[in-house]
Structure formats: structure tokens, C-alpha cells
Write a structure and sequence with these properties.
transmembrane, transmembrane helix, membrane, about 500 residues
Length: about 500
């Protein structure tokens, strides 16, 4: 297992070279940039929509603040943003190692858990992406680890910080509360052999955990309170066009009912979900041959399983979407639970036939999982090499404009190395405007009319990639007062011509 871990770690690191940009990276970077420049978060990308150009109150606050701190010092470049995501992936891996070491598992089992972590296709896809999932997943797992140790104050603090990082972090608060009740938690200083009836009821610890987590989470309201804009925050949360909206109970039930689509979205998620189900089934299959005797390993395994189940239910309760990268929330828990279950097999009194079933089953499931991870790494490396460097590409496109300080309508990733030269209005704004105000029927001619009214001296098209308004490749070379001056397979540049 140790050699396989190092092999997949090398594959994971290899995906960092010439890494392509994810759609959301420039979005998060722009918010951090304006926090550095103006002391509050707003967005020129979405100027004219939901007051975005004035001040945003709904965003990934702790993550953006951290990004502002790091990038304000080191620069707003793609590698710096990706390094932030990679740092929190590293923290998540170290948290798994630290937790299993605390539980006293042998090195071979720790190597298995870390192998499952670095070989996961979703982790390979999002390690070098400037998004908050790896950050609040690491904070949430650390919260769970401290819950296990009876360090409720630290656990509650970390759960609250995960909420500040992303509102989906609320699932760690809810899972923590449910876990404390389910385990009828003893105070940390209570002897392990104390009868349950002789210990304090779990309610004081539950309320204490909830109070501290809520107190930390309440800092999410701080900027709105200082601006006297609590109503504005609620309005943005309820109506802002740039986040998923859930306006009715039926909408919420529909999203919650599709949780399986997150767990089995593609081979990256399916391979781990199948591994978890298979290993847990081989561990807890009813019958006299399979149930391991109660040890510290099986006891902690049950605790992890309960927390993961509660986390899934809490996520289904609060989430507004089942986007694939949310799978990273559950990844550390799945890796640890699988490892604990496999480790518990050595304590079970099992018939030879079940030993063979477990050996063959684990080999098959783990083999498929590792093949899926290797395939994802290779595909990611190939995709990286097929795309141009975004900074160089932006410089090439900007060379056709050469009007510093002017407004440009462009894909969001035009931000990189051009954010100080142009006022960038995102093509994604027009995609959302098309959906919201035009019912998806905004024509290219109408779009260029809006661009002229917006005062845009140039329009850069990416042909509708990444939630941009689609200006097809087949668009005529001249539309209204805009004339195409450059086109390739990835982009086209249209310049505003003066009236004669």
C-alpha cells in the first residue's frame, strides 16, 4: 500500500503542471481582489445584477478573505490561487493521518487510507483548483476528529469556521449535533467504564457545541451588520442570480431526492461509493460468520459510519445543488471508514469462505477504484497539455484591444493578468441575463446592442464555454458596430468601430 500511495501521489502532483483553469477560479479571485482594493467584496463581472457592483454579502467569506490575504501579498496569478486549494488538500490528508495515528491503527492501514485519498478522481480533479471545498472539508473532518477526542470546544470552533468558508459547512454543525446525541456523549474526563446512567445527560454538551458553532458562524453576518444591510444580505441570499435558487419546498425535495446523483455522478464518485458500500457490506453482512467482535477499531468504525450518515442527511437537508465537487465533503470520512472496516476484519471470527469473499471483494473493488483514479490522472494531464497557458492567451487577446482602462466583455478567466488593465464585464453575466430576462432567446444582434450600450470597446467570445453567453463561431465578421479582428478554435475578438 505504501508504494501505491507514493505512486498516486506522484501522479497527483504531475497534474499540477500546466494546469488548466476551472470556471470558478477567476470568480473567487476577483472577489478577493476587490476585498484587497476596496475593503469589501463586490464584482465587476456581474455589474448590473443584484447590486453586485456595490457590495456582495453572500460569498465564501473565510475562503475569500484567505485568498485576499495570500494573493494580496503574492499576486493574483493562477499558480497562487491553485496553491491555496492544494494547501487545504494537504491539510485534509494530514488530518486523516493524524486521526488514524491517534486511533492507534498500524502504518499499513494508514497507508491504505492515504492511498484512497490521493487516488480519488475527484481529488485529482480539484486539488489544484481555487475553490473552497478542500478547505471546509478539511475543517469539517478536523471537527469530527476533535469530537472523537471529547474536545468539543475546538470541534465546534472548526465546524463554525467551515460555515464561514462555505455555507454548506453547516452540514458539519448539524452532523456534529446529531452525532453527539446518537453517541450519548460522555464528558471527556468521564472514565470509559462509567455506567451511562451515571454520566451527565448529553444535552449540555449538545447545547455547548451548538452554541459555540453558532457563535462562530454568526460572523458570516458581520459585513452586513457593519453596512446596516441585513435585509440586503437576505435579499441576495434569496434572489441573487449567481447562485442556485430553491424557492419552494418541492424544489428542495427534488434536490434532496437526487443525492444519489452526487454519489454516482461519474466514475470518480462511483468507484469510491461502490468501494464504501462493498466494504461496509462485507463487514456488517448479517450472519454468524461476519460480525467482528467489539474492539476499539470496530467501535471507532461505527462512530465514523454514524457521522458520515448524518453528514449525508445534513447535506441533503441544506444544499441548494448537487454539484460534483461537493463530493469532496465526504471524501475524508469515506477513506477513513473503509480503512477502519478493513482493519476490523483482523479481529473477526470469520469462516474461511468469508475470508475468501473479503479478500476477493476488496481486491476487485480496490483495483477498480485505483484504475479509475489512474485514468483520471492521465486524462487530466492530457487535458492540461491540450490547453494554452491562460496568462499567455489573455495577453494575446489583449494585444488586439490595446485600450487600457476600457470596458471589455469577456470570459471570467480574462481576469488573469488583465484585471488591472481593463474593466471586465463577464460573459457569464449575459448568460444569466439571457436566462433571467430573455427566456434564453437573446439573439447575437441583441447581445451586441447591449454591449454597445454598456460601453464595451471589445467583446471576447469563448463560444459559450463555462456558462458564458454563446457567440457561435459562425457569427458574421461584423455585427452592428462590432467587427471581428481575430478568431481561433478557442476565442474570437470583436472591436467596436467608430461611427463614420
Amino acid at each position: 500500500m505504501n508504494r501505491l500511495f507514493w505512486l498516486f501521489l506522484v501522479l497527483l502532483l504531475a497534474t499540477a503542471y500546466h494546469r488548466t483553469q476551472h470556471f470558478d477560479e477567476a470568480w473567487c479571485a476577483e472577489q478577493a481582489y476587490w476585498l484587497v482594493q476596496d475593503g469589501h467584496v463586490h464584482s465587476e463581472f456581474f455589474r448590473g445584477m443584484d447590486g453586485s457592483e456595490q457590495q456582495l454579502f453572500v460569498f465564501h467569506k473565510l475562503f475569500v478573505a484567505l485568498g485576499a490575504l495570500v494573493q494580496g501579498w503574492l499576486g493574483f496569478s493562477p499558480p497562487i490561487g491553485k496553491a491555496i486549494g492544494a494547501f487545504w488538500t494537504l491539510v485534509g490528508g494530514l488530518a486523516i493521518w493524524w486521526h488514524l495515528r491517534w486511533l492507534g491503527l498500524r502504518d499499513k492501514w494508514i497507508s491504505l487510507a492515504l492511498l484512497l485519498y490521493v487516488a480519488n478522481g475527484m481529488l485529482i480533479e480539484y486539488t489544484f483548483v481555487y475553490r473552497p471545498e478542500s478547505m471546509y472539508a478539511a475543517l469539517g473532518f478536523l471537527s469530527f476528529s476533535f469530537l472523537n477526542r471529547g474536545r468539543l470546544l475546538v470541534a465546534a470552533l472548526l465546524a463554525g469556521l467551515s460555515v464561514l468558508t462555505h455555507l454548506n459547512g453547516l452540514c458539519f454543525v448539524l452532523a456534529g449535533l446529531g452525532w453527539l446525541l446518537w453517541n450519548n456523549h460522555r464528558p471527556a474526563n468521564s472514565p470509559a467504564n462509567t455506567p451511562q446512567s451515571a454520566t451527565a445527560t448529553p444535552w449540555p454538551t449538545v447545547f455547548g457545541f451548538g452554541f459555540v458553532a453558532a457563535l462562530v458562524s454568526s460572523f458570516y453576518l458581520a459585513d452586513a451588520l457593519f453596512a446596516n444591510q441585513l435585509a440586503g444580505l437576505w435579499d441576495q441570499f434569496s434572489n441573487i442570480s449567481t447562485i442556485s435558487r430553491v424557492s419552494t419546498i418541492s424544489d428542495k425535495l427534488l434536490i434532496s431526492s437526487k443525492l444519489h446523483e452526487l454519489l454516482f455522478h461519474s466514475e470518480e464518485e462511483t468507484s469510491l461509493s461502490a468501494l464504501v458500500i462493498g466494504v461496509v457490506g462485507l463487514t456488517y453482512w448479517p450472519g454468524q460468520y461476519t460480525l467482528p467482535k467489539q474492539t476499539i477499531v470496530t467501535s471507532e468504525s461505527a462512530k465514523t459510519g454514524r457521522y458520515l450518515l448524518l453528514l449525508l442527511l445534513a447535506f441533503a437537508l441544506i444544499t441548494k445543488s448537487n454539484t460534483d465537487y461537493y463530493y469532496l465533503i465526504f471524501l475524508p470520512f469515506m477513506c477513513v471508514w473503509v480503512t477502519q472496516c478493513v482493519a476490523s476484519w483482523s479481529t473477526a471470527k470469520t469462516a474461511p469462505v468469508m475470508v475468501r469473499w473479503r479478500s476477493y471483494g476488496l481486491g476487485l473493488l480496490l483495483g477498480v477504484y485505483l484504475l479509475a483514479g489512474a485514468y483520471k490522472a492521465v486524462v487530466t494531464i492530457q487535458s492540461n497539455m491540450a490547453q494554452p497557458n491562460i496568462v499567455q492567451k489573455n495577453a494575446q487577446l489583449a494585444a488586439y484591444i490595446q485600450q487600457p482602462g476600457a470596458r471589455v466583455i469577456a470570459p471570467l478567466d480574462f481576469f488573469y493578468n488583465q484585471h488591472e488593465h481593463y474593466r471586465i464585464h463577464g460573459l457569464t453575466y449575459y448568460h444569466l441575463l439571457n436566462q433571467k430576462s430573455y427566456g434564453g432567446r437573446l439573439t447575437v444582434g441583441q447581445f451586441f446592442g447591449l454591449a454597445e450600450a454598456d460601453g464595451a470597446v471589445a467583446v471576447i467570445s469563448d463560444y459559450g464555454r463555462d456558462f458564458s453567453y454563446c457567440i457561435p463561431k459562425e457569427t458574421p465578421a461584423r455585427v452592428g458596430r462590432y467587427e471581428r479582428v481575430y478568431q481561433d478554435d478557442l476565442n474570437a475578438v470583436y472591436l467596436l468601430r467608430r461611427k463614420k
